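hey can u check if this looks right to u? its 480 residues, i copy pasted from the old doc so theres a chance i mangled smth
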Amino acid sequence: MSDAKTNLGRELALATLVERAPLASSLAAAFKEKGYRLALVGGPVRDAILGRLGNDLDFTTDAHPLETKKILKSWAEHVWDTGIEFGTIAAKRGDTTVEVTTYRTEKYEEDSRNPDVEYGDNIEGDLSRRDFTVNSMALELTSQSPEFIDPFNGIDDLAAKVLRTPASARQSFSDDPLRMMRAARFASQLGFTLDNEVADALRDMSGRISIISAERVRDEFIKLLMSPNPRIGITILVDTGIADHVLPEIPKLRLEIDEHHHHKDVYEHSITVLEQAITQEDRLGGPNLVNRLAALLHDIGKPKTRNLIAGGGVSFHHHEVVGARLTKNRLKALRFDNETIDAVETLVSLHLRFHGYGDGEWTDSAVRRYVRDAGDLLNHLHVLTRADCTTRNIKKAERLSRTYDGLEARIAKLMEEEELSKIRPDLDGAQVMQLLGITPSANVGKALDFLMELRLEHGPLGEERATEELLNWWRSRNRP
């Protein structure tokens, strides 16, 4: 690489580092004092050059892990060594978190994601084992003056916005198949394209992703989905066949369409819904994982429920029910937490509810049930339902938008009048047992369910009417 490019990379990285991460200098001084080298490495160098450096910094050093730990204990406020097996010690000082890893080389078994770690003796060897050239740059901080190290011309690839591997792509992905998902993730996060060799290797080796744990696949997928442009990464996963192994419901959305049975492109529709849901995330306080998962997965029940209608046309009856079940199963397989699984499953199951009430002719009862069933996810459901309109018919889109405006206005009015978010039966369990002269049993639950149905259908009844209705219900149940 030319001296001009080297100087440019160093200057860009240093300028951002000085501005955003002043603690890096004091950490380098601590290592230098003990006779060791320290370099900022990988993603933080890339991001520093791009002017988007965060508070999580990665370093590499010739100090062995136990020596690194001693130095960090004297420098940081908190130190933890959960990654010491792989040569990594982490620490935190102020708002900055650092990970310092000893130079290393790695050897992989064919059927294993976990490498045999051997410590290296130079930074160039360490950089050669990394995933992509744009992550194989370093800024040596303990030299007489900062030294920009870029043995694989990562700065050129950064300028060209292309993802390329330091070694052969096939060898890189064979060593660590998770790098295939990282390629899709970085493409989404950075807006980069794939080098032809990388793209070919992804297609040829997609099946090797199956040796990666579900948890690590999930974490990469979350980063991709939460990126500024998840369409790019999702398309890479689908086009290369990786999605067939980690999220097979998505490529299945590419349903065959013949000239007699027309319907919208479900795959393209789902990606568009995701993008439209992202534009509304200010309603949810910012980027929201549940919102994005629900938008992407809301129609995954369609392939299993597609029915070709004689004479033309197609139906997808109950695809929301099937889709909710498929969503739950897929998210469980990817080891998502139960709270996320339950929330996304609920949204998928409810995403058609709005369309079941015609053109805004909602009864108060229907509004109450809509709010009750959505619960804490009501705003998420608002976003998903609005995003689910991808028609190119401007008049139809405007009509649907006005109708949903009306529904939200109805909800707001009833919220004010009845505190819909706190819908409860007009009597509690203790009152039910006292009035009916019964002890705790299934009958108490049935009585409360009866009172809740009355509350949803008629609004607040008041204690007197609720008591009368309850007693009449009880007598009818126990009439000889």
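Residues 258-262 have pLDDT under 50 and may be disordered.
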